[in-house]
# Entry
Amino acid sequence: MFRIMKVPENALLPTIKYSRGISMTLQEPERPSIKTSVPGPKSQLLFTELNSIQQAQSVQLFGDYDKCAGNYFVDVDGNEFLDVFTQISSVPIGYNHPALLGAFEDKHALKSLINRPALLVFPAADWPSKLKRVLLAFAPRCMNNVYTMMCGACSLENAYKCAFFWYRTKQRGGQVEFSPEETVSCMLNQPPGSPDLAIMSFWGCFHGRAFGALSTTRSKPIHKIDCPAFGWPVAPFPRYKYPLHENEAYNCQEDERCLAQVVCIIEERQKCCRPVAGIVVEPIQSEGGDNEASPAFFQCLQQICKQMGVAFIVDEVQTGCGPTGKMWAHEHFNLPSPPDLVTFSKKMLTGGFFTSSEFKPAQGYRIFNTWSGDPGKLILLDQVLRVIEQEQLLSNVQKTGKVLKDGLHELEKEFSNAIMRVRGRGTFLAFCSPSATVRDKINNSLKKNGVLSGICGEKSIRLRPALIFQEKHAHIYLDILRKTLKEL
# Structure
């Protein structure tokens, strides 16, 4: 069996240092305020209108985004909610932050937004410096290449392509030219131009809804059903027993069981000439239920990738940009070397992925689409990163996360029949209920009591507050959650 490799505790990644800052204050409600039924009459009317235009069953509320502020979401009926879900983890510094409201007052910034260049054909003169200053300055260590994209799914799609290009170049012995047979067969979707390569993912993962990303998504059937998919392999992801400190032996065996399956799948596919070119993994499986794995699991998974010549792809679309208390969640794992590719989106406002020059395609147009991102998003992200540094928001996430997690553990003791398995890092937290029915009742009751939270997996509730979520907000949330649990 594959044994867990222990990395010394002092093998820490270097701390990221920030050198930019902007100080802002936000005006937000003191507490949630619910004035109507939830959803209210205006939301219900708008839902009827929207649902006549498109399938809108996923819509919960309609927002009045002129009135949203900081950690509070205001709907069209005037209800003010403490938002710990933040547009599925996508609002980094709260609603209507002054730094973002003023981002396009500068005429050059405004023109960068409205003219929206095809960035891989006609970029502006300041585009290289923006990539260096805004993105590469905050990249995972040793990653000197970055590609911007429009969303998380296309970030994964193109990261997978980079992994395939890298793998095929290795198979050719480093040659980058293509044979006539390859150029003809790829147009017929046949080998050798369209090789039978795979990206391995894990049960419970979510990597997006575009077709390549969807083939690696394994969280809910509704995401995939009726869609053709690649026959790519899937490995088990650890399912731990909680509390973690009381179940170390079991959880270590669970790591080893899953890692052994990873090795077995790679070996079997190599034997039948259908090799795994890359493994993609989330630092915390989000849509699949906020499932965690230990630092030792990720260290060992990276070791397997290196030993077997497979790209190690870390999907930080939801965990990136600070919600776990570090800029990148994989920094918690003390990896001996960086991942090969790291994808991002959501709180980063733009999509994209970081990598090293080793994964840079030799030819142009291999990683390409019309826009390949949006310079306007980098202008906003620049302001976000300034605020993170000036307001020491990573430190704030660590402090607030401790208050939240400690409070959830107390409620876990008080209401052990309703919540359990409290887990997570920073403010990126979750807990389980005994069933989906109980979970949904809690989540819906929280909304009626003035809190927006999210669900994930089979029976979990997740917290995804903004980085400006403070201890006072944590206490409001915990008070309302206690009230909600008492009302069950």
